[in-house]
Design brief:
38% of the residues lie in helices and 22% in strands. With 405 residues, it is an alpha/beta fold. It folds into two domains: 171 residues, VC0802-like (2-Layer Sandwich), CATH 3.30.2130.30; 208 residues, HUPs (Rossmann fold). A hairpin with a 2-residue loop joins strand 7 and strand 8. Helix 4 crosses helix 5 and helix 6 crosses helix 11. The radius of gyration is 26 Å and the shape is elongated. Bound molecules: adenosine-5'-triphosphate and magnesium ion (MG).
């Protein structure tokens, strides 16, 4: 029996389905992103079938491998659901056998139902009859399990499409959103902390190509935070959510600021400098916005006054997708994303460097601008961008621009 029926993963993408005439662009983007994720996996081909993507797996692919693939596909932006199952002949006895096999691959369950559909009336058995025939076959095979029409633990889906039947039971929700590459490009300020990777991921999930910029305390601190950021980027890369990072050594500039500026304004001044450098890189990359992991009131720099004083440093819009999110919720998201453990490690970055005892929580813009005249910001920005190290990650929709410097 094994090998006779081709194993498939079916990818459902509801939100794209709603996008009207952009639909085919999004579908093509999604196919490319999924193909990139699956390069190296035992995949024969990926086809669009009746508003889904069907990933055909190589003969002999084990259930464990197929399930692991389905789980990783579920994390790709733009995917609503991924199901594991089989393609077989449009023949009811065979379809019943395959349904038994598909159900056997589900995790523990007590109740189930069959949901059959045909999208060609040239298949003579209608969906009601298919439900009955395959339902009773499953009842014979699983006498200890119960059929339940409303909210069963598992639904065995039987779809007769074109010249084949697709049958699946194991199904997992995807992260939703839009395929990366369908909403432009953004520049994300990426610390090695818990919040900013989640903020970046949220923009990637809405289809933006995300480029990270990390400010390390080098040469005034070690480069530990840079390694953590690389580890974080590798997690985000698994689902195509990050294209590249710029690593900027900020330590010397911070030291200078600490020497010449009022201590209470240091944090704001560091942050304005970070924003300005990020904006410059954004322009080089053609990115349309900055993104941070700020959450209102979480720390001293995240008050309305201070947010205003940092936003004033740049022209580009600054997105803060976590502004209304509680820390515990952010932690849960970071755990689901797989970055929490990495972010929980302590590493000195530019945030821990030259911190004043009493940072200003309600910075007034005139005082900030006055303090900023004590150093040559434009030259610093040029030098910092020049000193940035670039790391590239797999993101199929990203085409690097040539550096114009
Ligand atoms: P996170 O957990 O993301 O580090 P946080 O709660 O520690 O956030 P802050 O240190 O005030 O808060 O940083 C606020 C935001 O500023 C971060 O989410 C990030 O977007 C940006 N940021 C802070 N430090 C850095 C850094 N060293 N490099 C790049 N961006 C940074
Ligand atoms: Mg931080």
């Amino acid at each position: 029996m094994e090998g006779q029926h081709q194993r498939v993963c079916l990818i459902h993408y509801h939100e794209i389905g709603l996008k009207g005439r952009n639909r085919s662009v999004f579908e093509k983007r999604l196919v490319k992103n999924v193909e990139a994720l699956l390069s190296g996996a035992p995949v024969v081909t990926i086809h669009r079938i009746s508003g889904r993507l069907c990933v055909f797996l190589k003969e002999g692919t084990s259930f464990e491998v197929a399930a692991a693939l389905a789980d990783s596909i579920a994390g790709v932006p733009g995917i609503a659901r991924v199901s594991c199952g089989y393609k077989c002949e449009r023949e009811l006895v065979e379809m019943g056998d395959v349904a038994v096999k598909a159900l056997s691959e589900c995790d523990e369950f007590e109740t189930f139902k069959v949901h059959a559909r045909r999208n060609h009336t040239d298949f003579e058995t209608d969906s009601m009859e298919m439900n009955q025939i395959i339902g009773s076959r499953l009842c014979e095979a699983y006498p200890q399990k119960k059929v339940k029409m409303k909210d069963p633990d598992v639904t065995v889906v039987v779809e007769v499409i074109q010249n084949a039947a697709y049958i699946y039971a194991r199904s997992k929700r995807g992260i939703g959103g839009l395929p990366v590459g369908s909403s432009g490009k953004v520049m994300c300020l990426l610390s090695s902390g818990i919040d900013s990777p989640v903020a970046l991921w949220k923009l990637a999930r809405r289809g933006a190509i995300c480029i990270g910029v990390h400010f390390s305390g080098r040469p005034q601190t070690s480069d530990e935070s840079e390694y953590l950021v690389d580890d974080i980027a590798r997690v985000l890369e698994k689902t195509g959510c990050i294209a590249r990072t710029y690593i900027v050594p900020l330590g010397d500039c911070q030291k200078q600021i600490a020497l010449v500026a009022p201590p209470s304004l240091r944090v704001i001044l560091y942050r304005r400098l970070m924003f300005k450098v990020a904006e410059r890189i954004a322009r080089l990359e053609g990115a349309g916005a900055l993104v941070t992991g700020e959450s209102l009131g979480q720390v001293a720099s995240q008050t309305l006054d201070n947010i205003r004083a940092t936003d004033d440093a740049v022209e580009l819009p600054v997105f803060r997708p976590l502004i209304g999110t509680d820390k515990l919720e952010i932690i849960e998201e970071a755990q689901r994303l797989g970055t929490f453990e990495i972010s929980s490690q302590d590493a000195p970055d530019c945030c821990t460097l030259f911190m004043p005892r009493n940072p200003e929580t309600h910075a007034k813009l005139p005082a900030v601008l006055e303090a900023e005249t004590a150093y040559d910001l434009e030259t610093w920005i040029d030098d910092l961008v020049e000193a940035a190290e670039i790391h590239d990650y797999a993101c199929p929709s990203y085409k690097p621009r040539k550096r114009v410097d």
